[in-house]
Amino acid sequence: MGNCFSARIKAESPFHSVLTSGTNSRYTGSGNDLSGSSSRVSAASVPPTPRSEGEILQSSSLKSFTFNDLRTATRNFRPDSVLGEGGFGSVFKGWIDEHAFTATRPGTGMVIAVKRLNQDGYQGHREWLAEVNYLGLLYHPNLVKLIGYCLEEEHRLLVYEFMPRGSLENHLFRRGSYFQPLSWNLRMKVALGAAKGLAFLHSEEAKVIYRDFKTSNVLLDSNYNAKLSDFGLAKDGPTGDKSHVSTRVMGTYGYAAPEYLATGHLTAKSDVYSFGVVLLEMLSGRRAVDKNRPSGEHNLVEWARPYLNNKRKIFRILDARLEGQYSLNGAQKAAVLALQCLSNDGKHRPTMEKVVETLEQLQDAKDMGRSPQTAHNESHQSASVQRSRRRSLQEGANAKAAYPRPSASPLYA
After folding, report:
1. Distance CA 191, CA 410 (A)
2. Which of 53, 85, 192, 214 has the fewest CB neighbours in a 10 Å radius?
């Protein structure tokens, strides 16, 4: 597989010439806006792709679908089949025969998710091609499976395995009967699965920097196994004696590493920082950036950092919806891991292999799911825990509801 990887899309251009003025007030695409308000990537600034479509498509083992196949499978892209939508386009639920890959009646055969590219915008086409380029070659239990694609006249579509539990983002931040709060054990299971996916990408076998790790790109199967999706911004890692890849600053505001924002130097440790942000979101039940929070709490990392390594204050950041059903020791270790991943100096962050090792130890811990009363008795902090929990519940009651708008990643309902 090594020869195939060497031909993948390389870093294209300096980071400093990418961001231009735009009109969108919030991010709804597949992760290319780092302004937090109004800047978008200009299609005019995107240089040609080094490899042709034919070269990329021929090197993959993906199924080539016709547009009519997918139109039939999704019932003509009916609105009630929409699973998610965003800057890339819309994602539809469909059904195909698991052997012949032909369209079948709804409710029969294999369920799929079909992402249909908006027909305006070259950047979207580049991300479509990058998705085929990477997921056509990479295989791992913690990466979403790309079944095939459609390239027919102006039509660009991608066909994925269906992930019935949807995105981690929905489970953490959406309210409703379908999206119940994730338990502590499930959060740690999802964190471990996502970490394994990133560790594989960083391995010698793959050498890929994901560049857009966030909750909406972590999808869950029926057993809450985590799989990474949306490889439109992934990059080949540095080769030879190089320590980084110099590239355009792209990703999602709130998740990008500080050194990448400042210099455009991209390394595997940039992904580690993003993982730290997501782990912190899982611990706190708060978004990486939330302008609906009180002043001083808009940026999750800045607000939570002082509490992560403080045993007396750790409860201030833990999600009240956990209702204390976690091990005090496990919560402290997870918080310390998040703090290590969020180091401002990339050299001080652990590798994803080390992150996996730490999370596996948390999974194996005998007291991982012990009751809050046991944890409180061991910690001598029962009173402070209750006060912190009451404050968190009051904050939740007073906060303005902010439901996420689906992104271009497959957000399954």
Report:
1. 19
2. 53
Distance CA 378, CA 373 (A): 9
Q: Look at residues 318, 327, 242 and name the one whose alpha carbon lies nearest to residue 285.
A: 318
Identify the burial level of 213 via C-beta atoms within 10 angstroms of its C-beta, where 0-12 means exposed, 13-18 middle and 19 or more buried: buried
**Is 395 exposed, middle or buried (CB count within 10 Å of its CB: 0-12, 13-18, 19+)?**
middle
How far apart, in whole angstroms, are the C-alpha atoms of residue 318 and residue 293?
16
Sites in the chain below the pLDDT cut of 50: 1-33, 35-50, 371-386, 388-389, 392-413
Nearest Cα to 411, choosing from 157, 215, 120? 215
Both structure tokens of 56: 């990329």
Instruction: Return phi, psi of residue 157, to 5°.
Output: -135, 155
The pLDDT score that the predictor gives to residue 386 is 47
Is 241 a residue of the active site?
Answer: no
Return the beta strands (E) in 153-236 as ranges: 155-161, 166-167, 208-209, 218-220, 226-228, 235-236
pTM of the model: 0.78
Determine which one of 33, 80, 120, 212 is catalytic.
212
Binding-site sequence positions: 115
* Binding-site residue ranges for ATP: 115
